[in-house]
Design brief:
Layout lengths: L4 H15 L6 H8 L6 H13 L4 E2 L5 E2 L6 E9 L3 E5 L4 E5 L11 E6 L10 E8 L4 E8 L3 E6 L7 E4 L11 E8 L8 E9 L4 H12 L7 H9 L6 H5 L2 E2 L6 E4 L8 E7 L5 E8 L1 H4 L5 H9 L3 E2 L4 E2 L4 H7 L7 E11 L5 E12 L2 E4 H8 L3 H6 L4 H21 L8 E6 L5 E7 L3 H23 L6 E3 L5 H11 L14 H14 L2 H11 L4 E3 L23 H14 L5 H41 L6 E9 L3 E6 L4 E5 L7 E4 L4 E4 L4 E3 L4 E10 L4 E6 L16
Parallel strand pairs: 13-20, 14-21
Antiparallel strand pairs: 1-2, 3-4, 3-6, 4-5, 6-7, 8-9, 8-11, 9-10, 11-12, 15-16, 16-19, 17-18, 19-20, 22-23, 24-25, 26-27, 26-32, 27-28, 29-30, 30-31, 32-33
Helix pairs in contact: 4-18, 12-13, 14-16, 15-16
């Protein structure tokens, strides 16, 4: 990530000058900025660079100004399932209706005109210009004619793309294709492009996932020079290196992960001391020892930002030689680690924290499943791992103490159900499985949070520039909207300004007792801000934590690798003036970047799961499922089945007439004088599973016989 620090500072200076003044000419800016008048061409080139990136604009008199002074705002566009979008600035977000997308695609940097005055409902905007395109390729379905063709985009773009005959590139009619857009269209002409690649049938889910990766600019493959660099790293640990580290190989340290995990980056050890205190060691793979700042491996990892866990494959942040080999804490192997050792009293308070480089040799590669069996006193598994059974129960004891501390301070426990799509050897869905969170999962979660908090607090008080995991207090307007929905379930948040997570946690607990926790959880989660990475310690609202970062997963998150490097500086003293300056200038840009790559990963992971679920439901048409109403719009009732499959009923296909009452948030059957409410449980039949739209349509079983009937005619 190349950063021109001097130019960035100059841009900030110019923005501050323009904020408090009228538009300025080139000569006026040259004088105000203290630039040399002799470098007029160079000065103009700098301004043109900022013009092209949308940082500044020109008015009708050819004078320079900032977009905000002219009623425009620059931001990043997020396309939400092709139905609406948001443009996010550093401080706020603007809703973009589908009709106001223009030619913008997800991830583009755009200029918007605000079309909703502040203070009058949600802030709404219209995209007037695409400043920077995230990519120039579009995925779509090819419609071949004799002398030309069109590509109908599968992602939201709004217009077909004209393809001249000489740019068909052997694509067949109906193929899923990748198009390089050469002209983005105008009021008079359609966009134009050329086909780069034919992926194949749009109804093959392997092709759909391949298209998804191409669309988002992701790849399983690493550049040759990155692979070559990974293979040059020696797995041999020298005696000289061991002498520099704390040797923990005599301790029965273990990893606890999922059955199919290969990138094992955290190991744990717990000991109860004679005075009733606990020693907790969280040992994390020392990726920073092997990956040097600025190396090819480092630059590729920074670009990726994180590993991506798709339904049928993993796109790792590092090549497998690193992620599954040298750095993975595989059992019975000497491994270099960065450890955090905590001394915790019987009340769960941290008495002391030490961070140091170490070497470990894990005694077992434990799975969540087997640890849960041991904690449930399964005799067979207990006998197999008899050497660590006592430690596992001590871990559970400490975990419950930590959990109580988190609960008392108001940490929100979002125990949302999660679906695991289990595939066969042909990548077809065998079955859907609800993932249960047992005690072993909670133990690891509690220990990792404890380590992350300890590192964040240590770096904060050392006043070293750092990376924080930030989860800000919710926006009062969004909480107000949430309150209106919660009121239908008998809940109320009394103060929107002085919010504390404990208020949400108490509602979640009560909803569990009433059996409506799933829907209440989701509504609360949607009202909260999205966690991100930043350089300012703003705390973590959801965890009710004053200091939080990510330290525990450097194999799969670049943020954690950065923290390891910063912490390594801290344990050897204090940053030099040069190191301090580099961190100050580099961290704001890289934290913004990895926040974006994380969001992209989440989006792609969810969509890959959706593709496979929709495919799975194709042969379930006509089958009955138990479902809960989770939402409405003017034409649809949205459900979630007991298997956590999302689906909807299009009420316009029903025999009776329906009306959505937005004020009371209910769907009304006007003919039968019946209401459908959030949380209502019904039995539904699958009537359609659409791979192109990635949606599943259902009809309540009681209305199925009316589904294909003609709609009743109004007599007034």
């Amino acid at each position: 990530m190349k950063i021109n620090t001097k130019l960035n500072k100059e841009l900030d200076r110019l923005k501050n000058i323009l904020k408090g003044s009228k538009a300025l000419t080139l000569d006026e800016i040259t004088k105000a900025m203290g630039w040399s008048p002799k470098l007029k061409k160079e000065n103009r080139d700098i301004l043109e660079t900022w013009l092209s990136s949308g940082e500044i604009m020109k008015n009708k008199k050819n004078k320079y100004n900032i977009p905000e002074n002219l009623g425009f705002i620059k931001g990043k566009f997020s396309n939400i399932k092709g139905k609406f979008g948001f443009v996010d600035t550093d401080t706020e977000g603007y809703f973009i209706p589908r009709s106001k997308f223009g030619t913008a695609l997800d991830g583009d940097t755009v200029l918007i005109k605000v079309i909703t005055p502040e203070g009058k409902g949600k802030k709404e905007g219209e995209i007037v210009e695409v400043l920077v395109r995230e990519k120039n390729t579009i995925i779509g379905i090819f419609e071949k004619k004799e002398n030309f063709g069109f590509v109908r985009p599968t992602q939201s773009f709004g217009r077909d793309i004209y393809i001249p005959k000489n740019f068909f590139n052997k694509a067949k009619d109906g193929d899923l294709v990748v198009v390089d857009v050469t002209f983005w269209g105008s009021d008079e002409k359609k966009p134009e492009g050329k086909i780069l690649e034919s992926i194949g049938s749009p109804f093959d889910t392997d092709n759909m996932i391949k298209a998804l990766l191409l669309r988002e600019g992701l790849s399983e493959d690493f550049p040759d020079d990155v692979i070559a660099e990974a293979r040059q790293i020696s797995p041999i640990i020298s005696e000289e290196e061991i002498k520099k580290r704390k040797d923990l190989r005599s301790l029965p340290i273990i990893t606890i992960d999922g059955d199919d995990a290969k990138d094992l980056d955290d190991a744990v050890y717990v000991e109860k001391l004679d005075n009733g205190f606990y020693k907790l060691i969280v040992a994390i793979a020392d990726v920073s020892h092997y990956i040097q700042t600025g190396s090819k491996l480092d630059k590729e990892a920074e670009k990726r930002g994180n590993s991506v866990y798709l339904v049928d494959r993993v796109l790792p942040m590092f090549p497998k030689e690193i992620s599954n080999g040298i750095c993975s804490l595989n059992p019975h192997e000497d491994k270099l680690t960065f450890s955090v050792e905590l001394l915790i009293d019987s009340q769960g308070r941290t008495i002391d924290i030490q961070a140091y480089k170490s070497i470990i040799k894990t005694v077992h590669r434990m799975t969540y499943k087997n640890v849960n069996k041991i904690l449930a006193k399964d005799s067979k598994v207990t006998e197999k791992y008899s050497d660590i059974v006592d430690m596992l129960f001590t871990m559970l004891e400490l975990s419950k103490i930590i959990r109580a501390i988190k609960y008392n301070r108001g940490s929100i426990d979002f125990d949302l159900p999660e679906v695991k799509v289990v595939l066969d050897e042909n990548k077809k869905v065998k079955y859907l499985k609800n993932i249960e969170r047992g005690e072993s999962e909670r133990i690891i979660e509690d220990f990792m949070i404890m380590a992350n908090e300890a590192v964040a607090e240590k770096l904060f008080w050392l006043e070293i520039p750092s990376v924080y995991r930030v989860h800000e207090t919710p926006d009062p307007e969004r909480v107000k909207a949430l309150n209106e929905t919660l009121s239908r379930f008998g809940y109320k948040i009394h103060s929107f300004e002085d919010l504390h997570p404990k208020k949400f946690q108490s509602i979640i607990e009560d909803s569990e007792a009433k059996g409506i926790n799933m829907i209440v959880h989701k509504m609360i989660l949607m009202s909260l801000k999205q966690a991100r990475y930043g350089v300012e310690n703003l705390g973590h609202f959801g965890l009710s934590s004053n200091y939080y970062t990510h330290f525990t997963s450097p194999i799969r998150r670049y943020a954690d690798l950065l923290i390891h490097r910063i912490l390594n500086i801290a344990i050897h003293g204090y940053p030099t003036k040069k190191e301090f300056g580099i961190l100050i200038n580099y961290l704001p840009d890289v934290t913004a970047h990895i926040s974006q790559t994380e969001r992209k990963a989440m989006k792609v992971e969810d969509e890959s799961v959706k593709i496979k679920i929709v495919e799975y439901m194709l042969d379930k048409i006509g089958d009955e499922f138990k479902a809960t109403i989770v939402g409405f719009n003017n034409k649809k009732i949205f459900f979630e089945t007991e298997e956590h499959v999302e689906c909807y009923w299009d009420v316009t296909t029903a025999k009776n007439f329906y009306e959505f009452d937005e004020n009371n948030y209910v769907m009304k059957d006007l003919d039968m004088n019946r209401e459908f409410h959030l949380g209502d449980k019904m039995e539904v039949l699958i009537v359609r599973s659409d791979l192109q739209m990635l949606e599943i349509e259902v009809v309540p079983t009681e209305f199925y016989h009316d589904y294909t009937d003609r709609r009743k005619e109004r007599r007034f």
